[in-house]
Predict the structure.
Amino acid sequence: MWASLAQFTLRHRRAILFSFLLLTIFMGYFASQVKITYEFAKLLPDDDSAYIDYKNFKTKFGEDGAVMVIGLQDKNFYTLNKFNDWYDLGLAIKKIDGIKEVVSVARIYELKKNDSLGKFDFVPVFKQKPVTQIELDSLKNHAFDLRFYDDFIFSKDSSATLMAITFDNNKLNTKNRLAMVDTIKNYADIYAAKHNLNLHYSGLPYIRTVIARKIAGEMVMFLGLAFLITALILMVFFRSATPVLFSVLIVVIGVIWSFGTIVLFGYKITVLSGLIPPLIIVIGIPNCILLLNKYHIEYGKYGNQARALTRMVEKIGVSTFFANVTTSIGFAVFCFTNSKMLVEFGLVTAINVMGTYITSLLLIPIIFSYLAPPSLSQTKHIDNKFITNILLKIDYWVHNYRPRIYVTVAIILLVSVFGIIKIKTIGFVVDDLPKKDAIYTDMRFFERIFHGVLPFEVDIDTHKPNGALALPTLYKINKLQKELRNYVEFSKPISSVEAVKFANQAYNDGNKKYYMLPGASDMSSIAGYVKGANQNQQGALKSFVDSTKQHTRISIQMADVGSVRIKALLKELRPKVDSIFDKKDYTVTITGNSVMFLKGNDYLIKNLQESVLFAIILIALVMFSLFASLRMVIISIVPSIIPLCITAGLMGFFHIPLKASTILVFSIAFGIASDGNMYFLTKYKQEYKSNHYSISKTVSKTLAETGVSMIYTAIILFCGFGIFTFSSFGGTAALGVLISLTLIVSYCSNLILLPSFLLTLEHRMEVKAVIREPLFELFDEEEDIDLDDLKLK
């Protein structure tokens, strides 16, 4: 098969080149249309109960993550110039296309009882900018009497205030949001500079906008770093520009195809899929290294370019094929998670890993068939004395010090197990950002003053129309809100209860002591005043009660306390909710972005743990199809599992939590680490018969030939994944560190532990276990066809 493929490739060089050119142009067209997602990643599947509850909530009440906030803390804020400019800032922001509403201390409203018309009038406290400081002080004191806004728009000590900006849902998840956020921030920064104030920005629209920009910037940065680092390492290895240039060309095609695949599948760039193009570079370059190394070795042996290119495909094609299959499996298992973001990442990466392999397998022999044969200076890297000496030492160790190797590995594993026990599973909404990042520090400001900005919602179904505003329901909601106020993680709850209290205060001529739920008789009178209001004036109430008045909500903002604490809070709250709301009469659902984060985080961790197991099983099946021996499968799998255990142990010792971004490491690293096994074992299989079934001689021969390429590959992978440590996202940086570490340990394991296992079994393993007929026949050194007379036309 591989001999035929090699000859077919060289005979039809022009047709294949032309086909690749057309396909790359086609994919390039779609790649030019790639877009970044402006939505939060959907982590839960459509049939998940938590996702269904959240979707139903948004259908009734709209998007809960549509508010951006600007906050400040200044004891001298209520001076005429500062306040009036704040007034103007709110007015300017409200005029931005796509902004639905702006609420600040300068833009708050009160209810005024209009006895003549029997209704409430919705009146701004500040009808215009105050003219004098005395007027401002008077209006400020009046505003502070409106207890609805306490700890919502301004803090109790009056030193801090915020501006809440609500985005139009139709433009929230579009590219327009970026321009809107930019305009808001420009206006606010001008205000801050004028008054020498430190403004704080937060809220999901702002956080999502900044993250989207970071994704775009880092994708470009990683692409540049990946090209630069791999090119430099290739130049060091080959000492020639030709292999570097055309290896980079191969992965450039892979990058174009990866972007094109994303668009063809209808996907957009996310924080994960933004890693695919640089991953293709890092994973694709080793294919070129293996092929070119073999080409140079074969040309050095026979001095026949055609024969060298043909044998390159014959002997390396199969090992790189299975190596890329195992790598693809490491990514493809994410498709089993049913998480949209991970499925997209896994599917696109797996497809393009194989696509890049095919590109390198076909284009490397074609391109180099048109070039002059390699000169002596270009093949010097094969006899690198430093690497040769390392491999000779490894060969000596595995033949003479295997017990020491096993004892060392056993001790490392025992220590790793102790570290694994210390691993904690926890995730935060913004824990992927550095502690000094503005998003992080600003979020902490709002948590300290207003207890948070992350939406936490309670959806109450009263099971009957108009039940949401019934007095018994309101009293139950009020009781639950008192319970919620006991938690420092929660902001002041806002609900229809607060609206009714606000109305009761207005009904009693603004006396703040009447900011409470009214009695039954007063409630009836207040309801009449509310009904008399016009549709716009009733709009505030619609935010908390659905059109049938059967459903109502309690809206809370919470701190980013982490998945462990959120889970504990839900566990504590559920019995309290059930004790207040009888399940026969009410259905109470706790939802919101904060709960969705928890559920999504737990779902991903559970599914990613399963994906690691799937990867091990699938790669074991690939190994079995290749060697038809259970012993060989165990021998090949164990050296790749041990590095995962070491990495997990280090995570425990260095307090790196297990979360969605870090657990990705294991299936990806296992898939790529298995490449080293595949390179070694396929060569071992090829050499076994020619060395008269001597495992000792075969191991030495395999180490000598594949060891150089494996060391090159390990360095490329280590440095290639190392670029992700420059990410401003903690999860991506941890991914880079952990995968780099795991892979370098894996390749050491493949070069030391794997041959040690083979040698240990030399006198125990039956010959038939090694030479048993596999499902996929490998190229056999002894059955090489005569290619001496083969020439290129």
About this structure: The chain has three domains: 2-40+209-374+386-421+597-780, 66-202, 439-591. Residues 66-202 form one domain. Confidence is low (pLDDT under 50) at residues 766-771, 778-785.
